[in-house]
Amino acid sequence: VSRTSPRSAVRRRRTAGDGWAPIGFVAPLLLVFLGFYLWPAAQTIASSFFQWGLLRPWSPTDTDTWQFVGVDNYTTVLTDGSFWNAAVNTLIWLVLLPLLVGVFSLGLAILVWFLGRGSWVFRSIFVLPLTISLAAIGVIWGFVYNSDPDIGVFNAILRLVHLDGADLDLGWFSLHLGDWLSDLGHLSLGPLTINLTNLALVMPAFWAFTGFGVITFTAGLTSLPDDLIDSARIDGAGPWQTIRHVILPNLRGPMIVVLVQMVIFALRTFDIVYVMTGGGPAEDTMVLALLLWLQGFLFLDTPQAGEAAAIAVLLSLAMIVGAYPYLRRATRAESR
Amino acid sequence: MTGIRTTRRATVLLYLGATMLAIVWLVPVLSAFAISVLPLSRTRTGWWNSGPADLTFGNYARAWEEGLSSYVVNSFIITAGSVALSVLIGSAAAYAFSRLRFRFKEVAFFLLVTTMIVPVQIILIPLLPWFRTLGLTGDLTQYLGIVLVHVAFGAGWAIFMLGGFMSEVPEDILEAARIDGASHVGIYRSIMLPLALPGIASFALIDFVFVWNDLLLALTLLDRDHQPLTVGLANLQAPHLAQEDLVSAGSIMAILPPLLLFALLNRYYVRGLFAGGVKG
């Protein structure tokens, strides 16, 4: 929001920009960006049409390494059961994480905001997990889920209420309380089978990112004009009516931010799965980001880096298409 | 205080509910902390049954000696280098993007901001061969390599956040400096940087947490002698090894630096995330 005086506007229009000076300011960052983002990204896209592995990497300058396979990597990936299994698990993340974080942190932010005195203590506690690395979060939640009821809190509680080892099997739905990370159960929805162990992995992420939601919604709440709430009170509105008709409609912006950020995170989720289950047991909790990493860096003797690159391209495309309106808006706001 | 009417009883209930939620919220961290300060034998009989007499810091000492110390050093080198370089060249670029006009500005801005959305996996796979080509696999150059990738990937956040703070500086001040004959470098150094300092602090803090917490890049790009604490932790985490004592101590060590910064500079941290929240 710049307040340009008319004179400088005229001067700037005449010189069409600020000459060479801006180049000097942006060049260092742009060079790093070109060398370590755009160029590798271009290589990923190009190399997804070749067969290669990290033992004998594809190189844009060495035609000896070019084993062109066209779109084979893409067709291989898209007809691979492992890919669709990981895609379904990623979809579970994609639906659950924004939903859980969006709803819960909204309620939490409003609750804490109502408190007034001492609210910063509560807010700090709920924001705290946001500063913890997801690798450490995986480790910490590993303790919570520990199968030994003398170590894991969840299983200790189950033992306390005599639900340890409680098994439920209805065919289309099964639940094995206590086997949080090994086999929590499944839910069959027609052709789609949802492995409940994924829920146990979404929980730590939900715990971590609720803080982001609380901060974002609190920002929205504090920017509400005071007279808005005051006039609602003068009109005789109770707390519930104020929340429903005054507060919630004014939090649409923050809600979009939270949902978009959670979608972005859910699609790229790697750390928690890598640390807690490694995608297992079998491929029960495999997600796309981990699958492509394993294909690129673990199967060194069977050259699958091209397929990994193909998954990376598909993942990024999904992300760009999904978040494009958001990106557009951010860009416009800045260059105004 | 908010202007919403609540009865006294409702207020008490609200505090009660919030307190219970807060306690539940802290259970995962508390259990990791409890396990980290208890001998393994006590942990096996329920850490909640232990008393202050069982306290020990032996787990930390052993975790430190068994190799976590080098991970910690690596974490600090990588994080400090990335944050410093990001602030240095990111703030310069943010000045140009927020206050100057030049060709292809919008295209460049758009490309940079895509780093906020596109997953890091899009560059991951060819990066290792690319590092070999550039000679970024040596002892010290490995650090440089991952720092440059962190800077490239933080570029979007840098210009988005820092540019946001810099565009709040009133144009009149810049105009006055221009009339006095100040150069762009002069304006950047003596007006922009000081006035945007709180914003820069916010960015540095968030970037610190982000880089410190990275697992994927470090796991992929660095060899054993250069990996940070997150990778060390992931390596320690193997349930069948039954080393909860070491793992818990390591996890608390990994949590502490960002947490201390958060506690000390809470204001800047929240302000930075606010900026992202309100603008987005």
Describe, in plain words, how this protein is organized in 3D.
The complex is a heterodimer of chains A (336) and B (280). With 336 residues, chain A is mostly helical. Chain A has helices spanning 6-15, 21-47, 72-78, 81-115, 119-127, 134-145, 153-160, 197-222, 226-234, 239-247, 252-268, 271-276, 288-297, 305-335; strands at residues 167-169, 173-176, 185-189, 192-195. The longest helix of chain A is centred in the first third of the chain and has 35 residues, at 81-115. Chain A is globular. With 280 residues, chain B is an all-alpha fold. Helices cover 75% and strands 0% of the residues of chain B. Chain B has 13 helices and no strands. Chain B has helices at residues 8-36, 40-43, 58-99, 105-113, 121-134, 141-166, 171-179, 184-195, 197-212, 216-221, 229-236, 244-264, 266-279. Chain B is globular, with a radius of gyration of 23 Å. At the A-B interface, helix 2, helix 4, helix 5, helix 6 and helix 8 of A face helix 1, helix 3, helix 4, helix 5 and helix 6 of B.
Uncertain regions of chain B: pLDDT < 50 for 5+ in a row?
Answer: none
DSSP, total strands of chain A: 4
> Order of helices and strands of chain A, N to C?
HHHHHHHEEEEHHHHHHH
Oligomeric state of the chains present here: heterodimer
Helix content of chain A: 55-70%
Number of helices of chain B: 13
Structural class label of chain B: mainly alpha
Distance between the termini of chain A: 7 Å
Overall strand count of chain B: 0
Main sheet of chain B? none
How would you sum up this structure in a few lines?
With 336 residues, chain A is mainly alpha-helical. Chain A has 14 helices and 4 strands.
